[in-house]
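REQUEST ID: PR-0412
SUBMITTED BY: lab tech R.K.
PRIORITY: routine
TASK: structure prediction, single protein chain
INPUT:
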Amino acid sequence: MSFNVFGKHSLDIEGPLRLVVVGAGGMGRAWMHTIEADPATELVGIADLYPAATEAAAADLGRDLATGTDAVELAQRTGAHAIVNATIPEAHHPVTIAALRAGLPVLGEKPVAATVAEGLALAAAAELHGHLFMVSQSRRYNRGLFQAKAQLESLGRIGIVAVDFFKAPHFGGFRDEMDSPLLLDMAIHQFDMARFLLDADPVAVVCEEYNPPWSWYAGNAAATAAFEMEGGARFTFNGSWCSPGLETSWNGAWRVSAEHGSAVWDGEGEPKSEALSGPESKAAAAEDPGDGIAGSLREFTAALLHGREPMGRVHANVLSLAMVEAAIRSAAEGRRVPMDEILDGAYESALADTADADILAVLQGWPSVRDGLNRGSRSD
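STATUS: complete
OUTPUT:
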């Protein structure tokens, strides 16, 4: 395998990309079925701390598969080329570190890690070991979203990106008991989609979260957040997880206000735009990114087999989780929170908590946390 953190990366292999899925829960099983359906990939093993879970997942697929409790050992035993990390967020850091250390590229579920500090350590580990770690922000992989972005090219400077997200899921389990279920478990999707639409990163946020009186959640299940983005645009998120009736799509309902017109997208169908001034525009073409985790898998495979730079590389993804941490802090403290406050604090925590001397040396070599993230997300 050849890889440079500042450039391209590819595997020198013939045939499909051989993958081990780590985590045999609901999300892991979704990944297994997606891998099975993709002719460019092959599922060769399932790892989970609970053997009964791996056996049940293999039975669900209807065929015999190698299983184990140690993802790296299983990957080495089966000749896997990479792993898909579908564990809970608290396990993302140790599982991914172990895989990268063993020479295995990783496609991980969102969020990048349980905290921004752990995400920074993972970015440094990817640099140190020279292997790809890509985070699957699956809702980026939507044809309508790519079409909306293409339509924005004719509307000039963007001033406002707004999304409404109103759903009423009765999950049961841990989400019902979380302190900030909407912001922690869902809003990262819309936050990340806004970064994609704007090609810009956040500067600061003001956020309020609350719980409607009829809510079945113990924590705050509704929030409004206004982000200042690079270049001066604003991104506003208005959402609730306890709003039955006339629900939005899981992607949200979007509106963009720009210099020469506006665009809207309901999160499911075709986006619409209207330009009322400015130069005459032609219909913008948009690539088909694939759908959800199937799109993530396709991009990860293309990165490893053909050297294509993926948009979900860890360095480029950390700020999506940082937006969540900043919004929660703003709501808790009732003030505007600069993103650099979150990043600088996470960097100090990463320096203090990283026990691996080599990963620590990479972190210490960053001139600043933003410089470290920016240099690692270059694709030249």
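NOTES: The longest strand covers residues 158-166.
REVIEWED BY: pending
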